[in-house]
Specification:
Layout lengths: L2 H13 L9 H11 L9 H27 L6 E2 L15 E7 L5 E6 L7 E6 L7 E6 L4 E8 L5 E7 L18 E6 L7 E4 L9 E3 L5 E5 L8 E5 L7 E5 L13 E3 L5 E4 L4 E5 L5 E5 L5 E4 L7 E2 L6 H4 L2 E4 L3 E3 L3 E10 L10 E9 L10 E2 L9 E3 L5 E5 L2 E5 L7 E4 L8 E2 L11 E5 L3 E5 L5 E5 L16
Length: 472
Amino acid sequence: MSGSRARELLRADVLRDYQPAGPDLEARVFTELERRPRQEARPGRSMRALQIAALVVTAAVVAAALLAHEATDGGVTVPAWAPFGGLRPPTSDMSIVDDQFVSANVGWVLVQRHVTSGPTVLFKTGDGGRHWTEQLYFADGTGGVAGMRFWPDGHGMVGWLERPAGPTPIPSKTRSTPTPEVIFRTADGGAHWSRSIDPLGLTVGSRFFVDPDQGWGIERPLPVNSALLVRTVDGGSSWQPVADLTAAGIPPTPNGSLVFRDASDGWLTVADSRVAGADASGVPFNRVVATTYLYVTRDGGQTWAGQALPLPPEAVALDVRVWAPVFFGRSDALLPVQAIDLTGPIGTPGGGARSYLLRSADGGQTWAPPVELPGGMDRGGELLLGPRHWLIGDGANLRETLDGGQTWTSRRVLAGDGDALSLAPWSYIDQRTIWSQVGANGLVRSLDGGGSWSVVRPPMAADVRPRRLPGT
């Protein structure tokens, strides 16, 4: 009998009639023993009871170990309550630069041999990480990734900022001509790619598409303190100006989020209300650049209006950062907000960040007072599965609320104390399917809304097969 077949039979035998026991298995076993009538405690019976309890616990541990072994091949899901504290996902010998998944099985991962050097390679999986196929290969020293976006229908794009030949230019206080961005596009899930130069030098990360053809972007022409909203209806092959954002009174902050719900309704957020800097003598200062943090358009970006946000009094004096709103149908929406104290280092009194969620019940017309998130969003990000169902990464643990932040539960997902979940909006597929990066080079997946997780084998250096890019 082969080892694989033997392991399969052993696993089937252990799991026959097995019901998930939960983390309190031992406590429940011994509680039941204590509840039995005292007259049952005849000589030898207590020893047999303890032996039975030990066997039950051992069976649960063996079952979880077998499940964990299968999960390393992208197989069986391991419950988050697995004995001895959760999952140990396999790590790649390449760093994960970016990732996006469009279903429970299909997704793309952009990896690099080292954090600052080595080739950058785009891989795709169609079976939940069991196998990876190389799609794009960028040689070391040729440039850097500028973002990527994929859709379930097979369309996708990857932006690449090519590094100009010759010596590195001397830094200048005046803005130079932007580096042209090469856009690689696919319409069949990556089987074929086309190559083009973006006419405005806009990066994929600074644009927002509601579909593969229609999108908006922010162009920052000279002078540097201006911002122009542009729009495309042909997937970025051409762009047309829509509005002068600077003339509309919107500060040209480079880190804001641009999001559209449809062809008419859109929002623009301010990611830094205060910019920390220093004068020519090196004396630090805080320069206030914004007092309105959220702008809305109802006509496709032609006109914009500021929206008042009911922030806590203490937040007004801090650096306010507003992220893109998340919508659930036509009425419900959530707006993530952070208030960061710039007067002290992170983790010290007077330093760090406080995180909030603002809720709207009228499609983003008005916003209710904020709900503060325990532990903030800095440790592992957040996933908003519904108007009242939220998940927050907290190191190796996962925090969850089902009632809009009134009560929270916490459970351990990862085994290692140094491991950490990294939740991101693009990792959320639906209310059941979630992907999460773990550290710099690990992946896990949930198929039940975060209740249980399975490990996924990420692309490895051995999977890389260098080849020339399309159009080169």
